[in-house]
């Protein structure tokens, strides 16, 4: 149905937009000599996502592996950016405030939970959905394994009963 394809497109754009925000986060951290991994921020993201999931009618426990996969992919992109900037420091991006970028990340996370819940109202993800989603994950710096981990965690998300 059109609801299905609209929510799948929304899921895919929110996912890509989230990944495209990672170079700005990495650029800020490089400039301020901060590590990529920020566990206190990860706790905030997980708690926020659980709340978003619950508000969207999802079983919040089932989104946690997906959130970890999102953050792993986000960190992987950042490490790849940092590695690239060793050879071409002039290519380093962004003087964007971290708080502003994180606010944008939070908005994509909210959209993700809503779109996933909408899509699951029509039933589970199909093989065709998964193949389409993989083909649409075009943000630079994602490996095939990152994409597979994201989709396998996505397929474990359930609506609240
Ligand atoms: C994106 C960031 O970098 C890492 C990835 C996170 C994420 O994907 O949400 C959260 C915390 C960090 O470990 C960040 O610090 O905001």
Automatic annotation (TrEMBL):
Catalysed transformations (reactions): chorismate = prephenate
GO-annotated biological processes: chorismate metabolic process; salicylic acid biosynthetic process
Keywords assigned by UniProt, alphabetized: Isomerase, Signal
InterPro entries from the UniProt entry: Chorismate_II_sf (IPR036263), Chorismate_mutase-related (IPR051331), Chorismate_mutase_periplasmic (IPR008240), CM_dom_sf (IPR036979), CM_II_prokaryot (IPR002701)
EC number: 5.4.99.5
A GO MF label: chorismate mutase activity
PROSITE patterns membership: CHORISMATE_MUT_2
Domain of life according to the entry: Bacteria
SUPFAM superfamilies attached to this UniProt entry: Chorismate mutase II
Residue stretches making up the Chorismate mutase domain: 1-82
Pathway where this protein functions: Metabolic intermediate biosynthesis; prephenate biosynthesis; prephenate from chorismate: step 1/1
Function (record text): Catalyzes the Claisen rearrangement of chorismate to prephenate.
Protein name: Chorismate mutase
Organism per entry: Mangrovibacter phragmitis
